[in-house]
Design goal:
Blueprint: H1 31-39, H2 59-69, H3 91-99, H4 119-130, H5 158-166, H6 186-198, E1 205-210, E2 218-221, E3 227-231, E4 236-241, E5 244-249, E6 268-269, E7 278-283, E8 289-293, E9 298-303, E10 306-310, E11 321-324, E12 330-334, E13 339-343, E14 349-353, E15 364-365, E16 376-379, E17 385-389, E18 394-399, E19 402-407, E20 427-428, E21 437-443, E22 446-451, E23 456-461, E24 464-469, E25 480-486, E26 489-494, E27 499-504
Antiparallel strand pairs: 1-27, 2-3, 3-4, 4-5, 6-10, 7-8, 8-9, 9-10, 11-12, 12-13, 13-14, 15-19, 16-17, 17-18, 18-19, 20-24, 21-22, 22-23, 23-24, 25-26, 26-27
Helix pairs in contact: 1-6, 2-3, 2-6, 4-5, 4-6
């Protein structure tokens, strides 16, 4: 999959709309950008309600504009600046913008919040900001070289100036001149940021398919490109084809005391077989469908029209997720055993990471690593295994016999709590926060994560974590538990909404 641009949109569109007063007798070149900045509170107005478009833009004013657009996120770490007091109104702005490396200090532990920015410095800031998006704009062509004063662009800013000019984020101040060292005005700064933001594609979450699902928990794609949904509390497996849901394996026509389909364990023909709680599945190259039957602590196999129990003596304990590698080996998140299991194509079972029955968090040798209720798994083409360590609220990787934590910070336990506290934060992977992450899907160097407790879809790529949809509260997404990518679309199992959602990402 070609890399696409994903903004840090965690809460950007939840900011109250406050439109400051500004006068415009005739349309001006910066009016649209200034209106956008006013809408998101990106620039402070003076006592007369003016956004002061012609005034020089300061370092802290431009930092605040980006911070406000991003939804006022918390810093991943803090540092001390002599000229930024802890009670300063812009303290959080400075801490976040510097922790992200978008604007840095000026040396000697000073930030110089009220110092003005030059036009080439605006270019550098946008260039750094762009690094947090997973695909490239044009990297920088030769358009900027045509400016008569390009030779005066400082060496540190050359790539940035070429970048902003090539992508149309900034233009010359007057015909043939870029004026790199000239102080940038607030209007110039916000127009450049506005142009940058407008170039980002919108990721729209849609209600792709709604049927009579009951708490579905998993999704995959068959070898013909059809979606297959594991309709967990209907004890059924459904295929979506031609915009219709077809039943592959039906549940029993008996309800339990909670009104859910009664779980059973019956092998046999597809028409007669019964499942317990199918939570996930994966197709082998030969068309076999392997189903995680959590309630029965089993892996079931649908081959042709026959359902059997595969590797019946595996000793699983409420498994939740499954993946398959190029050699046909199955990898199972054996949730309440707190381990990752491998089942060969011949049915032999081994533990690849974790200690049976022991839980916690420990990186290192796979046979000594500890997990806490892992409930999501994905295998990369190179054989690396990514695990949603759900109870620890982190993402782990198994590679070369070693387990590492690749995304998510360990949060403390509340008093007498079994699980860690978790959280919700984007940014550098080591500081990102999740809350009961579950389903994973790996493609093209990107790991998509169903962050169930945050009601969000997250992306781990390039050493950072981004939010693609959701804001930490139930709504359009309500405990998304699994994801699958196919033909430019990310499909989401929206469990408590009993629906399948979709985000168009492109290839």
């Amino acid at each position: 999959m070609k890399k696409k641009i994903f903004a840090l949109l965690t809460a950007a569109f939840l900011i109250p709309v406050i439109v400051m007063a500004y006068e415009a007798a005739q349309p001006r070149w910066y009016d649209n950008a200034l209106a956008f900045a006013a809408q998101y509170g990106m620039l402070d107005a003076d006592e007369y309600g003016s956004l002061q478009p012609d005034a020089p833009v300061t370092r802290v004013a431009f930092a605040r504009a980006i911070w406000m657009y991003e939804g006022q996120p918390d810093a991943q770490f803090t540092r001390m600046f002599y000229d930024v007091e802890a009670d300063a109104p812009y303290y959080d702005v400075v801490q976040w913008i510097t922790s992200m490396g978008i604007i840095t200090g000026v040396g000697g532990s000073y930030f110089a919040p009220h110092e003005g920015l030059t036009r080439q410095q605006i270019a550098v800031i946008l260039y750094r900001y762009a690094m947090y998006f997973t695909a490239a704009f044009a990297s920088g062509g030769t358009d900027a070289l045509a400016f008569y004063d390009y030779e005066y662009v400082r060496e540190y800013a050359e790539s940035a100036v070429r970048f902003v000019v090539e992508n149309g984020f900034m233009r010359g101040r007057q015909a043939g001149y870029f004026a790199p060292s000239a102080p940038a005005t607030r209007a110039e700064a916000v127009v450049a940021l506005y142009n940058f933001i407008q170039a980002l594609p919108t990721l729209e979450l849609t209600a792709f398919f709604e049927a009579d699902f009951t708490l579905p928990m998993g999704i995959t794609v068959d070898n013909d490109g059809n979606l297959v949904v594991f309709d967990t509390f209907n004890a059924a497996v459904r295929r979506i084809r031609n915009n219709r849901a077809e039943t592959i394996i039906a549940g029993a026509d008996i309800l339990d005391e909670f009104g859910f389909t009664m779980p059973f364990h019956v092998d046999g023909t597809r028409e007669n077989a019964l499942l317990g709680r199918p939570t996930a599945g994966v197709f082998a190259r030969n068309g076999d469908l392997f189903i995680v039957d959590s309630a029965n602590n089993a892996i079931r196999r649908l081959r042709g029209d026959n359902v059997t129990t595969f590797a019946p003596y595996a000793g699983l304990n409420q498994p939740s997720a499954i993946a398959i590698d190029r050699n046909g080996n199955l990898f199972v998140a054996d949730t309440l055993n707190h381990v990752i299991r491998r089942i060969s194509s011949a049915g032999s079972v081994t533990t690849v990471a974790g200690v049976m029955g022991e839980y916690g968090h420990n990186d290192g040798a796979a046979n000594q690593a500890l997990f806490l209720e892992p409930a999501g798994i994905a295998v990369a083409p190179n054989g690396d295994i990514f695990v949603a360590d759900t109870g620890n609220h982190v993402i782990r990787r198994i590679s070369g016999g070693t387990v590492t934590t690749v995304a998510g910070a360990l949060t403390p336990f509340a008093e007498d709590a079994y699980y860690r506290s978790g959280g919700f934060a984007d940014g550098a992977a080591a500081g990102a926060l999740f809350y009961f992450p579950r389903g994973l899907y790996y493609v093209g160097g990107e790991l998509f994560i169903a962050d169930a407790g945050n009601h969000a879809i997250r992306l781990f790529t390039g050493g950072a974590v981004y939010t693609l949809a959701g804001n930490g509260e139930p709504g359009m997404l309500n405990q998304p538990v699994d994801v699958v990518y196919f033909n430019g679309v990310l499909y989401i199992v929206d469990s408590l909404n009993h629906a399948i959602r979709a985000i168009l990402l492109g290839e």
